[in-house]
Each structure stands twice: as C-alpha cells, then as structure tokens.
Fold this sequence. Notes:
The protein is of the alpha/beta class. The chain contains eight helices and seven strands, in the order βαβαβαβαβαβαααβ.
Amino acid sequence: xxxxxxxxxxxxxxTGGGGDIGQAIALALAREGSRVAICGRSLESLLKTSKLIRxxxxxxxxxxxxxxxxxxxxxxxxxxxxxxxxxDILVNNAGTISFSPVIDLPxxxxxxxxxxxxxxxxxxxxxxxxxxxxxxxGGRIVNVSSxxxxxxxxxxxxxxxxxxxxxxxxxxxxLELIPYGIGxxxxxxxxxxxxxxxxxxxxxxxxxxxxxxxxxxxxAEPIPIGRLGLTGEVANVVVFLCSEKASYIVGESINVTxxxxxxxxxx
Length: 267
C-alpha cells in the first residue's frame, strides 16, 4: 500500500463485511492502507472478502459474530485489539431487511431487524468508542443508515424505523464523542446493486404482479442519474468520512442516492 494513502496504518472494523456493500467498504479501506477486520454471521462470505483484501496486498482479520449480541461484540473488539493493538475506524454496516405490511408483521421479524440494524449499531459503537477513548488517538465511526432512514419505505416500517433511529443515534453519538476527537457520521445509500435491491425488486414484482424485468425497470425509473448505485460508490463516501479530509463534518447523514430524493414521489 502507498505510504501516503488516506488511511495508512489505520485499523478498521467493518460489520457485515461479507455483504455487498460491506465487502466494497472493506476493500476500499484496505486500498487506502487500513488493516481491516470484518465480522458477520456467514463465515463463507467473510472468507471471500478476506481473500479479496489479501489479493490486493492488504491485511484482513475474519471474525464470526452476531452484532446484536453484546458478548459477541465484546469478544470481537478484544480480538481486533489482540491482533493489531488498536482500533481507529468502525463502520457499522451490518443490516437486514424484510418486507411486510405492519398489520401482518410478526413480532420476531420486527425484533430481528431492530436487533441487527439498530442494536448492533449501538453495541458496536459503545464498545469501540470505549477503546478509542482509552487509546486517546481519536477515531472515526461511520454508520450505514439508508434512504429508508429519511423516507418511510412501503411495507418495510420495521426497516425504516431502525434506519431513522440510526440517524438520530449518529447525531447524539457525534456530540458525545467530539470532545475525544472521534468523528461520527452516517451514509444513507439509496437503490444500490446487490442483495437488498434484489429483494426489493422481487417484493415489488410480487406485490404488483409484474415480471422481474418490469419490476427492475420500475425500480430504476425514479433515479435521476438513470441507474442503480454501485457498492463502490457508497464505499468511496465511507472512506472519505474515515479520513482527515472529513475533519469538519460532524453528525451528518450523507445521501448516496443518485438524486432520487430530488424527485417528488420517488418511492
């Protein structure tokens, strides 16, 4: 890695590092010089990300963990510290989604989405921030919210509730941690290519009786830029927020949506 990379010699932890966006973020951080720990519940997908990081000459650490379980999170943080002795960057990317109207939404489905998306963000931030404060080196926390954290999504109230909450959590945490030199911000991806977009497209097709091709076309139509976003485009914003170039940005939730929010009714 180049010595003058944006994040040379930093240690980063990316939750949900085996998913589409998580993998892109982990790779982007590694390209900028960070040693990258990734966690998630699927060891197979995590190992794929680790291999990609090592293929570009980076250092990777794979940790199987449930971010919604405090003991898993504490063990994960200890593992990173044991391996590399510090933690400079946390990216709370782990997330899940499902689709159901509220009147039919099972309580366990509500709980699962809240546990992963919101409780996971809280727990990882809590224990990572403790170490960042103790080490007195500052740090960066980036939370992955969603466009669905600013605009309620149809048949996904539990998902939107968790992502709206992440934005409020980001603002409060930013105020708490700024005295310690720790920057906290969020990104709000819109319609990004990957597993969640495919799930949304299939749900639209089912709900409206459309073919998959017709549902894909409808899904992209409201986006002024004319296409779905790329995972790397989200990762680029995360890298920026983790760098000193973002030193005066505090508690913001930055849209990565291709302009969809500029269009009325862009559900």
